[in-house]
Amino acid sequence: MIGRLNHVAIAVPDLEAACAQYRGALGANVGEPQDEPDHGVTVVFIELPNTKIEFLYPLGDNSPIAGFLEKNPAGGIHHICYEVEDIEVARDKLLAEGARVLGDIKIGAHNKPVLFLHPKDFNGCLVELEQV
Ligand SMILES: CC[C@H](C(=O)O)C(=O)SCCNC(=O)CCNC(=O)[C@H](O)C(C)(C)COP(=O)(O)OP(=O)(O)OC[C@H]1O[C@@H](n2cnc3c(N)ncnc32)[C@H](O)[C@@H]1OP(=O)(O)O
Ligand SMILES: [Co+2]
Fold this sequence. Notes:
CATH topology: 2,3-Dihydroxybiphenyl 1,2-Dioxygenase, domain 1
Number of helices: 3
Bound molecules: ligand LZKTLF4L, cobalt (II) ion
CATH class: Alpha Beta
Oligomer: single chain
Radius of gyration: 15 Å
Structural class: alpha+beta
Number of strands: 9
């Protein structure tokens, strides 16, 4: 069911500094910040030859990553995103197997449907699925 690794997300305490560091020290191809109010984050994508890095920074008062940054003030890997062909089929299969799907399917940063699976059900790792 899961396919390619679409992105690895890093929650950062300072978005500008993280972008400058990746652009400067790592010579990376760093995109522009995009606000995602439906998700409570501002994201920046870094294109790599084989996948992407997604910087996450809290947006608004109820950002879902605020708690993560409180626990990890220096930032840290926040989630991994796998690609799936059909997100509703994936959701239904996962629910049938007792996994916790967090919230509803939403349109993500690539204008594709995404969903999230509780980290406690997947070895302490927050998993995002994106339909491509
Ligand atoms: C624009 C969309 C973009 C895209 O790619 O398209 C995005 O990726 S948007 C990304 C931001 N959105 C989300 O993360 C939505 C899903 N996340 C959530 O619903 C919450 O963050 C949740 C439920 C994973 C955690 O909620 P909260 O921070 O309030 O913490 P809890 O106390 O409820 O956490 C319970 C338990 O899980 C541990 N935890 C929390 N976050 C993570 C994480 N990222 N990775 C691993 N573990 C995590 C937390 O420490 C608690 O563990 P415990 O042992 O009980 O302390
Ligand atoms: Co993501």
